[in-house]
TrEMBL record, chain A:
It comes from Nocardioides vastitatis. It is found in: Cell membrane. InterPro entries: AAA+_ATPase (IPR003593), ABC_transporter-like_ATP-bd (IPR003439), ABC_transporter-like_CS (IPR017871), ABC_transporter_ATP-binding (IPR050763), P-loop_NTPase (IPR027417). Keywords: Antibiotic resistance, ATP-binding, Nucleotide-binding, Transport. It is a peripheral membrane protein. Residues 5-245 form the ABC transporter domain. One of its GO terms (molecular function) is ATP binding. This is ATP-binding cassette domain-containing protein. It comes from the Bacteria.
UniProtKB/TrEMBL annotation, chain B:
The keyword Transmembrane applies. It comes from the Bacteria. InterPro entries: ABC-2_transporter-like (IPR010390). Pfam families: ABC2_membrane_6. This is ABC transporter permease. The lineage of its organism: Bacteria, Bacillati, Actinomycetota, Actinomycetes, Propionibacteriales. Keywords: Membrane, Transmembrane, Transmembrane helix. The chain crosses the membrane at residues 24-48, 60-81, 120-140, 146-175, 182-205, 225-251.
Length: 317, 268
């Protein structure tokens, strides 16, 4: 099958004026990535790493300086309007709703913009209103919505025309835990139901963990990692953490083979041991701990992805 | 084709509805326009009387009609140079517009025209009514000037919307177009015939005005509605409006295409 996104040697420079000098800034450089239909890809990196610039090139808003990009098999700049029918984009920082009109009015305008038939419009709007729980605020002007409500409406607006490819730029920024959770559940269901391809940028690693089966890490405009999440942890050697609750206070467990003692709570009733999943296993660590003290309860914590990304940056610098 | 018409119609209606949410602002505009209208009446009536009852074909009745219709159109014909599009280019929100399968220029102008048409209700009609009741005016007695006048008025609104769009589109290069907007504001009202009817201009200035699109925004529609010129001449004015629209619209297309390649969306 033809990739839904194909970037080949993609690059974009900006010219920044500083006093009288013009300085060239390479925002994205030599990006070669393909995304297959149906994939869910997390695109992560620090602020200014080049995420938004990439997305703008994928969607035809920004013209690349070098290289090639095909989105849905189309040339994003030349075939902008054809592409717009197949892509839905949510910019967390920008609204695509009509600020002073009721939410449902925005949906109606967008349905006309995408030339949905009356029946398709009713069915799709109904589906989105139900799944994103928007019935309560459909008649409310957009400017009076809470952030959580507005983001749900934004996502619905981007997905109204059932795009094959959905690009979300920081969709959960500023949302509370419950709103994030709701939005993620919706996206998971949407993908399962319609086979939609997802590409999302985020600073929230929960988004990546919950939604994505592939991760791209961009660092200073260049691709730093392309693969799955566990692979990412392995690449940077991120450690997992075994948390054990012991039946009685025990001195810090500093000598368990293959582990590093991180912290103790309650005079040693709860202890946290980091271990490298490549070098040892959770079971072996647990056996070693059990020999020293009685274990009442335990938990294994997955690596913090933010930490993983930080390590990638550190390793590359 | 039908679907395309539906899109821009829908955007126009949206512009209309959005504007309808700002009724208090419309009332303020009406008060300001009417006050200024009375001032114009005082000055221009004095001019007519000083000219022995008629100046360049304007008697008191026609002058009054000119004053109140032009004041009424102030809320609808964009002579300020400001536009939502200019704001969107500056803030980068125009990126969202480019993500839709519509012509960005067409969508912007449709929205602008929708807003303008709404303003005819709380600002246009009442201003003319106030003028007719308080001052009195001479209006045509047969339907042709009104029918053709409605077309001319709509064209005036669209020409203004398309011209203001040009300023906004220059923002693809300049980002902030406030300077241009102020320049537009400074020349548009005068050359459109808002303060003094263009036929009262010295010949050279009148020629200069007709070489710009501004009379097509205000003076021509007023001339057609008030039947200051005969039907044949009115048709000529409407033709001139259409020609301006073609030129300005075409220029807007070119600027949008070139500007898009230049666009560097700010932030986020």
């Amino acid at each position: 099958m033809e990739p839904i996104i194909q970037m080949t040697g993609l690059g974009r420079d900006f010219h920044v004026r500083e006093r009288l000098r013009r300085r060239k800034v390479v925002a994205v450089d030599d990006l070669t990535v393909g995304v297959e239909p149906g994939e869910a890809v997390g695109y992560i990196g620090a602020n200014g790493a080049g995420k938004s610039t990439t997305i703008k090139m994928l969607t035809g808003i920004l013209v690349p300086t070098r290289g090639e990009v095909r989105t849905c098999g189309l040339h994003p700049v030349r075939e902008r309007r054809r592409l717009a029918r197949q892509v839905g984009v949510v910019f967390g920082q920008r609204s695509q709703l009509w600020w002073d009109l009721p939410v449902q009015e925005s949906f109606r305008i967008l349905a006309a913009v995408h030339a949905l038939t009356g029946e398709a419009e009713r069915a799709r709007t109904g589906e989105l209103v139900e799944q994103l729980e928007m019935a309560d605020f459909l008649t409310t002007p957009v400017r009076q919505l809470s952030l959580g409500q507005r983001m749900r409406a934004e996502v619905a607006a981007a997905l109204l025309h059932s795009p094959r490819l959905v690009i979300l730029d920081e969709p959960t920024i500023g949302l509370d835990v419950l709103s994030k959770q709701r939005l993620r559940e919706f996206l998971v269901a949407e993908r399962r139901l319609h086979g939609t391809t997802l590409l999302l940028t985020t600073h929230d690693m929960g988004d990546v963990e919950r939604l994505c089966d592939r991760v791209l890490v961009i660092d200073r405009g260049r691709l730093a990692y392309d693969g799955d999440l566990p692979g990412l942890s392995r690449t940077v050697g991120a450690e997992r953490v075994l948390v054990v609750d012991l039946s009685e206070p025990v001195p810090d467990l500093l000598d368990v083979p293959g582990t590093r003692h991180l912290a103790s709570e309650g005079h040693g009733l709860r202890q946290r041991l980091a271990f490298d999943a490549e070098a040892t296993t959770a079971a072996r660590v647990l056996a070693d701990v059990s020999r020293r003290a009685e274990v009442r309860d335990l938990a294994v914590e997955e690596p913090d992805i933010e930490d993983v990304v930080r390590r990638i940056y550190a390793a590359r610098r | 084709m039908r679907a395309t018409t539906r899109v821009y119609w829908r955007l126009l209606v949206a512009g209309f509805r959005r504007q309808s949410r700002y009724r208090l602002a419309a009332l303020g505009g009406l008060v300001a326009n009417s006050t200024f209208g009375l001032l114009k009446v005082v000055i221009l009536f004095a001019t007519v009387r000083a000219g022995g009852g008629a100046v360049e074909g304007y008697d008191v009745g026609l002058m009054s009609a000119y004053v109140w219709i032009s004041q009424g159109l102030l809320g609808s014909v964009n002579l300020s140079g400001r536009s939502e599009m200019a704001e969107r280019v500056k803030s980068g929100d125009v990126a969202v517009d480019f993500l839709r399968p519509v012509d960005v220029q067409g969508a912007a102008i449709a929205t602008e025209v929708g807003r303008s048409l709404f303003n005819l209700l709380p600002r246009g009609l009442p201003a003319v009514l106030i003028g007719a009741l308080v001052v009195g005016m001479a209006m045509p007695t047969h339907p042709a000037p009104y029918l053709l006048g409605a077309v001319s008025l709509l064209l005036g609104i669209v020409v203004a919307g398309a011209t203001v769009y040009l300023i906004a589109a220059l923002g693809f290069w300049l980002v902030d177009t406030r300077g241009l907007q102020i320049f537009y504001l400074a020349v548009s009202g005068f050359l459109a015939g808002l303060f003094v009817p263009i036929p009262l201009f010295p010949a050279w200035l009148e020629a200069l005005a007709h070489a710009t699109p501004f009379p097509a925004m205000l003076q021509y529609p007023v001339d057609v509605i008030t039947a200051r010129v005969d039907l044949a001449a009115s048709l000529g004015l409407v033709g001139a409006q259409l020609a301006w629209l073609l030129v300005i619209g075409g220029l807007g297309q070119l600027l949008t295409r070139a500007g898009r390649r230049h666009l560097e969306v700010q932030g986020g």
